[in-house]
Amino acid sequence: MPLDTRAAAARAIAGVLQGGSLNTLLPAALETVSSRDRGLLQQLCYGTLRLYPRLQPQLQALLSKPLRSKDNDIQALLLLGLYQLEDTRIPDHAAVAASVGATRALQKDWARGLCNAVLRRFLRERNSLADALDPAARSAHPQWLYSALQKDWPEHAEAIMLANNEQPPMVLRSNAQRVSREQYLQRLTDAGFAAQAGLLAPESIYLDVPADVGLLPGFAEGLASVQDEAAQMAALLLAPAGGTRVLDACAAPGGKACHLLERQPDIALTAMDVDKARLARVRDNLQRLQLQAEVVQGNAAEPPADMPVQHFQHILVDAPCSASGVIRRHPDVKLLRRPEDIPALAAQQSAILDGLWPLLVPGGTLLYVTCSVLEAENSAVVQAFLQRTGDAELLPLQLGIPRAAGSQILPTRNGPDGLFFSLLRRHGESLR
Questions:
Q1: What is the pLDDT of residues 313-337, one digit of tens each?
Q2: Residues 39, 44, 45, CA angle at the centre, nearest 5°?
Q3: Phi, psi (5° rounding) for residue 26?
Q4: How many Å apart are CA 320 and CA 372, to the nearest integer?
Q5: Is 254 left (phi over 0), alpha (psi -120 to 50) or beta?
Q6: CA–CA separation, 139 vs 163, rounded Å?
Q7: N or C, where is the chain less crowded by C-beta within 10 Å?
Q8: Above 90 in pLDDT, residue 431?
Q9: Rounded to an integer, what distance in angstroms lies between the CA atom of residue 184 and that of residue 246?
Q10: Residues with active-site annotation
Q11: Distance of alpha carbon 383 from alpha carbon 391, whole angstroms
Q12: For residues 76 and 52, is the Cβ–Cβ distance under 8 A?
């Protein structure tokens, strides 16, 4: 028998409260509810976590004493109840009744009265509760991230945070080897999907309404892939010529590697990643799109010993980062990421650049990419690398907002995610 949708959502959110990743928890939760309720389950999980920094202090004010750690599921249920009342079209009485009813599915009937009292009190006091929030909580961002955005992007911080709190668009990439964007747009129209061409990347397509990929025409046959428009810019910026050797050093799940091959199938591409399990997704994507690449497990900071130096004409580094530019797609970042993570990530990014640089031929280019909007992971990392690397130079990019050592695309409502790009060249003879 399917589980109550709000109970399933509460269990998934409780898992995040305990330090788990929504990417890991959500698939299992989706299997517990009926197929018709899966969309609602996803909305409840993503929406509650996007607004968590705003909802949590209001919940604390509504509780006479904190809940016990073993009752994280009830805390999560109360949070998703507040989310429904604050940010959905679900009628108030229905949101309260359904949330209260979920206590039985969670086998915690004792919480029925608590849940009813808290949510009804919120309805009476919502204005005064909102007025009591500090600016960071009002923006639905943790204080450290709110301060970092204000520091790095004083003119754009508000717009970034508004975009972070929105449901992101679903963006497709038409497979240039199989179909033009115009042809695939027509196939979408014929199949009843409303869609628009993107403004940045020539293969990008925005669906008006997110859809199950299994329903998209030709998806299983490789006519299209899901990839944000900003992420699609990586293949365009690196732009390898046919016959060159290319390394995608942090390749999983393979979107950028596949896009490189779609745009230029005559390159010799090596897709490397440190995570063996995630490399399986790279292979799956290559197979679905009928593309060929060498898939290698390896740590970009310490490449495999048998990988020759000065071998690749182009290297793509999609570096591990805070994901601060894709929070709307990964809202658990607001709970799981800590300010002390940023220096540690910057150190890892620096080690990756140092580890990969010897593999690049003189005259070759390396594209450094993050899905972060924080300067500490972006220009600061590249500037420090340039200072300690005598044969590296920064190349100009005509894209996004110019920064000290690269260019930034900011997340925008109904637009691309937030990604940073920096193109570096190794001194020496030009590529032939």
A1: 999 999 999 999 999 999 999 999 9
A2: 100
A3: -65, -45
A4: 9
A5: left
A6: 11
A7: N
A8: no
A9: 28
A10: 371
A11: 13
A12: no
CA nearest 55: which of 115, 137, 114?
Answer: 137
* Residue count of the chain: 432
Q: Are strands 204-207 and 245-248 parallel, antiparallel or unpaired?
A: unpaired
Whether the Cβ atoms of residue 216 and residue 172 lie closer than 8 Å to each other: yes
Question: Of 83, 120, 116, nearest to 9 (Cα)?
Answer: 83
Strand-strand pairing, 268-273 and 294-297: parallel
d(CA 277, CA 106) in angstroms, rounded, equals 32
Count of other CB atoms within 10 angstroms of residue 155: 7
Contact indicator for 293, 281 with CB cutoff of 8 Å: no
Question: Which residue bears the tokens 């929504």?
Answer: 22
CA distance 284 to 253: 9
Q: Quick one: which of 238, 159, 216 has its CA closest to 414? A: 159
Q: What is the pLDDT of residue 73?
A: 96
Q: How far apart are CA 315 and CA 361, in angstroms?
A: 10
Partners of 395 in beta bridges: 423
Specify burial of residue 190 (Cβ count, 10 A radius: 0-12, 13-18, 19+): exposed
What number of other Cβ atoms are within 10 A of residue 349's Cβ? 27
Cis check: omega of the bond before 253, within 30 degrees of 0: yes
217 CB contacts (<8 Å, ≥6 apart)?
A: 184, 187, 188, 190, 191, 223
Question: Is the predicted pLDDT of residue 216 greater than 70, yes or no?
Answer: yes
Q: Supply 184's token pair.
A: 């695939």
Q: Which of 223, 177, 227 is nearest to 205 (CA)?
A: 227
What are the backbone dihedrals phi and psi of residue 429, each rounded to the nearest 5 degrees, phi first? -65, 145
C-alpha–C-alpha distance, residues 296 and 293, integer Å: 10
pLDDT in tens, 261-284: 999 999 999 999 999 999 999 999
Check: CB of residue 116 under 8 Å from CB of residue 96.
yes
DSSP 305-316: TTS-TT-EEEEE
Beta strands in 116-163 (DSSP E): none
| Number of other CB atoms surrounding residue 327 within 10 Å | 29
**Beta strand residue intervals within 221-260, DSSP E:** 224-226, 245-248
Specify burial of residue 268 (Cβ count, 10 A radius: 0-12, 13-18, 19+): middle
**Residue-wise over 215-228: b if at least 16 C-beta within 10 A, else e?**
ebbbbeebbbbebb
At 338, the amino acid letter reads R
Token couple for 233 = 């810019």
